[in-house]
User: What shape does this take?
Amino acid sequence: MREVLVRRSDVVSIAFVVPLQGPTGIYGPSCLACGQLAVEQLNARNGIAGRQVELVQVDAGRAPDVVAEDVGRLVDTGRVDAVAGWHISAVRVALTRRIGGRVIYAFAAMHEGSDDTPGVFMLGERPVNQLLPATHWIREHRGARRWVVVGNDYVYPRVTGSVAQESLQGTGSEIVQSAYVPLGTSDFQTVLGDVAEANADGVIMLLMGQDAVHFNRQFARQGLSEKLLRLSPAIEENTLLGAGPGANEGVYAAAAYFDGLETVESGEFAQQYYTRFGRYAPALNAVGESCYEAIRFLARLGEVSGSIAMSAALPTGHFYDSPRGLMRLDGNLVDQDVYLAAADGLEFKIQEQIA
Assistant: This one.
């Protein structure tokens, strides 16, 4: 007998796709807390387009095709109205193959630059306003010109590394070597040996989660922190905590949000977060905050369009407020302020707004 799905019509259900295991599982608690905060705040007001909001958790830390099939079944049965969350771009590619063009999909993570799948909104930072201005700043202020790229071997690091290599030509900076390793790598001795011999000034790290933790610990143990800078669009406060203060010297990160960002919007968000979850809350960081962004984006879409169905739309050039400041929609991408920060023990210190 075929199961008949009955779901309340006054509830908006969102497949909340965030990693709870594997190398990126380190981000999971921050994602869950920020998602919960977004839903509680929305439900205390008008929800999304007048309907209460619920999140249906999907573990994005598994193989991309497994994640995509789970989300696909939720969409097939009408269990969810939309998809949102932070996950690696390999999961995004699998999801768009499975559900593309059927529901609105608010992809929260930094990304390689574009995805034209109908209904997909790419809300994170991209190389042109994140990694590239960061390399320019470090060249001007720290003198680093020659870079080695070390990244995980999937679409985001590969494409971002390629974009950086091409875009840095003629700028006074260059990529002199690249290495890509499987997600889940814990032994970086061979890679670090090559890095040490590359005659470089720094490493562009395109490593995710626990892989970045292992890399930073081994990097520091080999004494490379005293010789080479590290720059990453993916390192956040959980990564600093995981590696420990002794492994974070010379680490720079570029992102649209950091805990401690001194803007009115980010200050209000941090106060709300710590009031709700207390001093021992999961780390507040760009990854978790991006999940909050994704859910609030769906709410904005519902507010303007009256629903979050595939027919809903926001015009190019549409502005809206967020903890990151003023956001501007550019097609299905978002223009936003981006900052460069330097690691200081287990915290980040903002150096400058770079985009």
Notes: The domain at 11-125+263-335 is CATH 3.40.50.2300 (Rossmann fold). The chain has ten helices and 15 strands. The CA atoms of residues 22 and 231 lie 23 Å apart.
